Every structure is written in C-alpha cells, then in structure tokens.
User: What shape does this take?
Amino acid sequence: MSQITNTTDYTAITLDIIPQHGTGTPVKIHQIMTELHIYEDMYKPFLTGTVALMDGVGLASKLPISGEEHLEVVFETPGGDTIEQSFYIYKVSNRSDAGEMQLLVCHFCSHEMMKNTKTSASFGFNGELISDMAQKMYDDNLAIDKEFDVEPTLMPRRMSFPNFPPARILLEMSKTAQSAAHPTGSDYRFWEDLRGFHFRSIQSLIEDIEPIKDSDQREILHRNPQNVQANTLNAMQGIEEFRILTQNNNLQQMLNGALANTMQVFDPVTGAVTITETKLADIFESFKSLEPNMTVGAEAINNLMEPSANIRVLLTDAAEEFASGIEGFAPAALAQRALFGSTKIDLKLPGVTNRAIGDVVDLRLPSPGPRETEGERMDNQLSNNAMITAINHSFTRGTYRQIVQVAKDSSFEEVKTED
Assistant: This one.
C-alpha cells in the first residue's frame, strides 16, 4: 500500500456529461454538483454510482439528460492516486422542484456493466482450469479497456452455461474455484473496482501483503486517536463515525452452512450418489480440541484463535488442505463464505484514493465507558485485523470522504472458559 495521506480535499479536474452516447459536446457540471458517489463492492461485479445536480439553468432540458449520456470523472487528492473513470448514465430520478432550481439525480455504471446487460453467452468447458476459462469469458464477452486480474485455480473442471450474461457466468465460476497458490482458499470473488476487474480468493488478498508478519504495512484505523502517542498518530486514520451492521448472527450462520452442512454429489456416468456431512470442527484442526458436545457458535468462532497467529480463523496453518474432489472443498467453501463477514462494520473516513478493496487494516475501536487518561481501552470484540470489502467514494463540494465497509471474523482475545 502507498503512503496514506489524511485529507478530505480534492480537485475536480474533469466532471463532464457528454450527451449523445458520448459523442456530443462535453458539459461541465462540477459547479452544479451537490453530491457524487462511486460505489465499489467485492460482492458486486460492477462499479455504480450517483451524481446529484442542482440545476438553475435548465441543463436537464437543454441537453437533454435522458439516461444515455457518458460521465467523465477525473479527481485528484493530495498524496493519493487520481480517480479517472468513464461511466454510462442509465437513469435519471428524483427530479424535483426547488424554487428557481431543479434537483435531479443521475445514476451511472461502468461501460462494462452496460455491455453485460446487452450480451448473452452460451459457454461450456470440459477438463479446463476455471481461471483460464474466466479469462476467456472476460476477453470474449466483457472486456473493453480494463485489466482483468485472475488468480490461477486448481484442478480441471467441467461446467456449462446456456445463454447467461457474462458476469453471471463469472460469478458462478467463482463459487467453485479453488486457488492453486493457496489450496485452503476456495472463497473466490469476482468484482470491479477503480483499478479494474478481479477474480481472486480472499486468501490471496491477505497473504500477498503478509499482514501478520509485516504489520507495519497495514493502515491503522482508530476511532479516538487523541490519547495515542504522537509518533504513532501520524500513521493512523481517524474514524469519524462507525456503525456495526452485523455481529454474531448464529441463526444466519446455521442457514448459510457455516457450522455444518450436507452435500449430495451425483455422478451421471455411474448413477452413484455420494452424501457428505461436514461439521466445521471436522474441517479445521483448530477446533478438534473442543469438547464433542460443545456448541460451536459464531462468538466462539470469532474469539477462538490468538491474533498473533491469524488474520482470520480460516487462514491459519492449522487448516487442512481440501481434497481434490468437490465434496472435499465445497463444504469448507460454504463455511468460509459464511464466516467471513460474520462481523461487518461501516466506517466514515477521510477520503484516500489509494485505499482499495482487499486491503487489510488494523481496526481499533474504543470500548464503551469512560476514557482512561493514558492509552486507549480497545473493544476486544470489534478491534483487530479486518478486510475492506466495499467503499463508497463520497464527494461534495470541496470535500472527499469514504464510507468503508470492513469484514472480520477474529478478535484480540481467545475465548475464556471455566473448568
């Protein structure tokens, strides 16, 4: 990660609406913009956003803005990367009267999303690597001018898709992909962010930057940094607000198959049906020390491992490599996907353009109660390493902030049990 600069300033180099499918004369709209949001999300395949305009010159009727324009965005922030994107405006909403002004909201998306809605592909392969087929699907049906970051997968697969949009095919591929470099990783994601498209596992995002061994590479996000030593404060980003979205939903964990699940595999050649019953304690050696009758709840899972040994419960060396068959890794994939994000938190931060989805951050949230005079008492359930899974880039006139969503399933302390 590059040097982080704490700032809410930005410079709008370009903010233009180009009518007639991007072939008309650009119209500058920065002076009438009230808000602009760009959304990137690990769980969604495309960039989307909105721009709110306070129109006092009849811009909407003169162009007119009909939902078929291009939006060109070039924003710079001190010490950060430049946001330079071209979008497709697909809808205009909330057009309302405000005295002599008129408020309207333009909804936009990446050009690849628009291409995806217009494309259907019949695609199949037998005995090929999913990563190779994902690259082919992207190149043949979705690519325009952005890079596609593909992590190599393990084991040849056989899949068939009749008349699906390209993004849906890639999302389906991600559900059965198993990492070649990180065999214990099967929770692949397909998403677009400001840097391009990605087809990668959660494990590769974490292990590529070695956040545990090289903890100085992690950005520190702190809610109340006023009691921290000055030499540490410079490396921190102050959290303006935070909101806990989910935490320890045991019922949802059960429904998602995180704690136990049953899988049936049908062999069309022999007609044989294989039934595999899996418990989380059977997949990961870390849980074998638990009492057989002990209920493994989400809270226990969150706190079981020591933070010095892990970023996530499911990324420890104790996790067994999955078997080559789908019945070996698919149940574990269900558990991984359900457990990752058992705690989700929204953080309001000063905008930093080189903060990206997949970054691992050192999250430090205060414990409720009176503040101590020296140091800071951290909430041991909410603090610790977390991964950025979504970013809302929020621009108003002269101010750039981000609403960052982080996910985690580990905490500072292991579970304390009575003898």
